[in-house]
Specification:
Elements: H1 6-17, H2 20-31, E1 38-43, H3 47-58, E2 62-67, H4 75-84, E3 87-89, H5 94-99, E4 105-108, H6 112-119, E5 130-133, H7 136-144, E6 151-154, H8 159-181, E7 190-194, H9 198-209, E8 213-217, H10 221-229, E9 233-235, H11 237-243, E10 246-249, H12 259-262, E11 269-273, H13 283-288, E12 290-297, E13 300-305, E14 311-315, H14 321-324, H15 331-350, E15 357-360, H16 363-377
Parallel strand pairs: 1-2, 1-4, 2-3, 4-5, 5-6, 6-15, 7-8, 7-10, 8-9, 10-11, 11-14
Antiparallel strand pairs: 12-13, 13-14
Length: about 375
């Protein structure tokens, strides 16, 4: 979605069908903790984000945003957020620009802003309250760091993010994205979902529900066993590349598919990424082993492999398709954003009392979001 009416359309839809942010805004204004607080937010700059940003600005936040990836940035959303008072930076140096404003709280996607903050030790302040991270890949990276030095709330493992947004929101968005871009049915065809975390599990569930024969490629033995007992046939990434019609990546790892593996792709294989990193499917490697590339639309490019002549259809330049195309119900994403915002409020209030390192998302935050959501869902 790119036209100037996107933000207005999404805002009107949210207010009409799921007005949770009206409830959140009233809640934040009543508490008054966010007034004149600088918040740095590294996120996808979409029309749905604009709904949340409007709520934060109305609550008095000085909001500074940096861009996750140009592939998911919507110009109309950026324009609207700027008009409402947000400061937005684009490009690879955007996290650094956000930190120049000395945010009191950081909300991150992929641990980009948090790592930049840790590296910029001269910017550390006694008034800094803490951070949150929303992705599994970001949490994995966090756990690998030797020194953290600040509290980081793990939103990814919360119930709302993992069980609703990751599972239902992304899975529903995948099916709609396939209908929107490919304009073909994958019913009765074979798809391999690579990765069986909550995103992969949701993708598999929604594909299976739409009539697709789903196989799971998962290297973690516990998740592979869970996929088996959930009723899926197990396969390898190599088998999915060579024998299927659809490959869905959901691992949160960069450069998953090598040049050699791309050359084994079956003819007319469609590849869709749902993981955080645009580099997960490694389309640069695909381009290197292709003799021709044709961009058919914003959402779809076709590559012709040099050796076999087989065609591979790749979605959204490798960016997570449901985010880049803004597909699926907006409710799960709004729920996740509501949780993210109440976590910002929590960090402003309690962050200085938290120990450095990974922190669980307080269940009381999810209970409050759920109460507000149930109120918004009433006819």
């Amino acid at each position: 979605m790119n036209n100037a009416t996107d933000v207005a359309t999404i805002t009107a839809k949210a207010d009409r069908e799921f007005p949770i942010f009206k409830e959140i805004e009233s809640h934040l204004k009543a508490r008054g903790k966010l007034n004149n607080i600088q918040i740095g937010w590294h996120c996808h700059l979409t029309a749905i984000t604009a709904v949340a940003a409007k709520c934060l600005i109305a609550a008095g936040v000085d909001l500074y945003l940096s861009e996750c990836t140009p592939a998911t940035t919507e110009g109309s959303a950026v324009e609207q957020m700027r008009l409402e008072g947000a400061t937005i930076y684009l490009g690879p140096d955007s996290p650094k620009r956000v930190l120049e404003h000395d945010p009191r709280v950081i909300s991150d996607t992929g641990l980009v802003l948090i790592e930049a903050y840790i590296a910029a030790t001269e910017r550390e302040s006694n008034d800094f309250r803490g951070a949150s991270e929303i992705t599994g890949s970001g949490i994995s990276r966090l756990r690998s760091l030797e020194t953290i030095g600040l509290p980081v709330v793990n939103l990814n493992d919360g119930v709302i993010k993992s069980k609703i947004e990751n599972f239902h929101g992304v899975g529903d968005g995948l099916v709609e994205a396939l209908d929107l871009v490919s304009k073909r049915s994958f019913s009765k065809e074979t798809a391999t979902v690579v990765g069986y975390g909550q995103v992969g599990a949701g993708a598999a569930h929604y594909l299976k529900r739409s009539g697709v024969n789903v196989k799971i490629a998962e290297t973690d033995p516990v998740r592979a066993l869970l996929a088996h007992y959930d009723g899926y046939e197990l396969a390898s990434l190599e088998e999915g590349m060579a024998c299927g019609s659809l490959l869905v990546t959901a691992t949160g790892q960069k450069f998953l598919i090598s040049e050699a593996l791309w050359q084994t792709a079956s003819n007319d294989l469609t590849v869709v990424n749902l993981g955080h990193w645009q580099e997960e499917p490694n389309l640069d490697a695909l381009e290197k082993v292709s003799k021709h590339q044709e961009k058919l639309s914003k959402g779809l490019s076709t590559y012709t492999l040099a050796k076999s002549g087989n065609k591979v259809h790749a979605y959204t330049g490798g960016a997570p398709a449901n985010v880049a195309l803004l597909t699926g119900s907006i409710e799960p994403t709004l729920l996740h954003l509501a949780t993210e915002i109440l976590t910002m409020d929590y960090l402003v209030d309690q962050g200085q009392n938290l120990d450095p390192g990974e922190q669980p998302l307080p269940y009381e935050i999810e209970k409050e979001v759920s109460r507000l959501a149930l109120r918004a869902l009433k006819p």
